Amino acid sequence: MLKKEPIRTCVGCRQKKPKTKLVRIVKEHKEVIIDDTGKKSGRGAYICLNEKCIEQALRSDSLSRALKCTFDEKTLAAELLKKAGHKNDQTSQGNG
């Protein structure tokens, strides 16, 4: 029997997508970090790795609400955009 893939909602665009298509942001020990493994303990939220979703999540404070904390948005945004750019670079290399 096939296992169902977990579905999560992006805090930026509010679209439901498979968990593997999103990046998990987690509040762990009063720190907000990107959870590359998806297994870190702590309160988490999911976001698409694209510029529009990242900007929307930060502008609307939906990420802060989901994590129930405040954090340095500029640092996290820079990390997410860097990761998004790296992912887009890999995707475009495959097409070329």
Which term fits the overall shape? Answer: globular
CATH-level-4 superfamily name: YlxR-like
Number of strands: 5
Oligomeric state of shown chains: single chain
- Report the span from N to C terminus: 37 Å
Q: Structural class, please?
A: alpha+beta
Largest sheet: 3 strands, antiparallel
CATH architecture: 2-Layer Sandwich
User: For the record, what CATH class applies?
Assistant: Alpha Beta
In round numbers, the mean pLDDT is: 88
H/I helix tally: 3
Which spans of ≥5 residues are poorly predicted at pLDDT below 50? Answer: 91-96
Overall tally of domains:
1
Helix content: 25-40%
Question: Can you walk through the features of this model?
Answer:
This protein has a single domain, classed as YlxR-like (Hypothetical Cytosolic Protein, Chain: A, 2-Layer Sandwich), CATH 3.30.1230. With 96 residues, it is α+β, with helices and mostly antiparallel strands. The longest helix has 23 residues, at 73-95. Helix 1 (51-59) packs antiparallel against helix 3. It is 40% helix and 23% strand. Pfam families: YlxR (PF04296). Residues 8-80 form the YlxR domain. InterPro entries: YlxR, YlxR-like_sf, YlxR_dom. This is YlxR domain-containing protein.
